[in-house]
Design a protein that fits this description.
This protein has one domain. By secondary structure, the protein is mostly helical. The protein is elongated and about 50 Å long. It is built from 2 helices and no strands.
Amino acid sequence: MRALIYVIPISIAVVIGAGGALVIQAVVNPSHDSGLLQNVANILGWGFWGALIVGSVFMARAIDDNRE
């Protein structure tokens, strides 16, 4: 049961983060040019994804701490 507290939020963050990363990349670089704009789009998109995953880990830890 305790593992679900970690697995569920992190799984949700991975799925939403991947979709969000692709949307951010499409908005920042709609023509898909390579170069600086693509690098900025990648950094923003995958940074958003990473931040969601890290945030979900901290959220899961806080929920776990409050249960004890």
